[in-house]
Amino acid sequence: MLVVLLAGCAQEDDYVREVRKNLETVLQVECNARMGAQVFAAAADDAAQNEALNAHERTAQRKACALFRALECSEQVHIALFEAVAKRNGWKAHRTCGDYPNVDSVRKGIEDALRAQDYESQVMFPAFVRAARRTGDTAATEAFSYAAAVEQVQAELFRAYLENAQAMPDAYHVCQRCGIIETSLPAANCQMCGAPPDKFKEVR
Ligand SMILES: [Zn+2]
Q: What is the pLDDT of residues 68-106, one digit of tens each?
């Protein structure tokens, strides 16, 4: 009986350790995503001012800049969510960023971001939600669930940009509780987390 109980505790510890490791992973992933968004927003902003480019191309760059700024804002919300979960559990949150991304072209930056968003929303975050749910850590489960759903919204926006950059909006509204990116200010509470409209920050 004792052996069974001890084995049960050991397994529970393993589950918690896994959630802690996952939290460190996502802090790193989201820090890199935020840094990449910052770098590409700046590059797109520069290109949008470049008079050597035609009006069509400059508009595409301006739209890319707004999209990357919205992404940066959204990732910042997720970083704060994950740091809050770490703090609640008494874990030290390590935020480590990798190297600056190479800015070959803004379009390639969009494609790379989209690939990462697809992977994170379809593979990484769903697995992390399942692991968090096993431990009964509702804050971690909620944070990973928001991130999974929001990364999917980000992917839809980045895919839309690749299809028709000119049709993209000039400004976005980012929920400061869950990080969802909306293309217009919601009239009602956030569809993802229920935050009131005044929790949305305009980014352009
Ligand atoms: Zn929200």
A: 999 999 999 999 999 999 999 999 887 777 777 778 899
**103 CA to middle of ligand 1, Å?**
31
In a domain, 184, yes or no: no
Cβ count within 10 A of residue 137: 21
- pLDDT for residue 9 is more than 90: no
Domain interval for residue 80: 14-165
CA dist 74 and 145 (Å) reads: 14
Overall pTM surpassing 0.85 (yes/no): yes
Q: Are 106 and 43 contacting, i.e. CB atoms less than 8 angstroms apart?
A: yes
CA of 201 to the centre of ligand 1 (A): 11
Distance 58 CA to ligand 1 centre (A): 32
CA of 59 to the centre of ligand 1 (A): 29
Cα four-point dihedral sign 136, 137, 138, 142? negative
Exposure of 107 by Cβ count < 10 A (0-12 exposed, 13-18 middle, 19+ buried)? middle
Å from CA of 177 to ligand 1 middle: 5
In a domain, 81, yes or no: yes
Is the sign of the CA dihedral 72, 78, 80, 82 positive or negative? Answer: negative
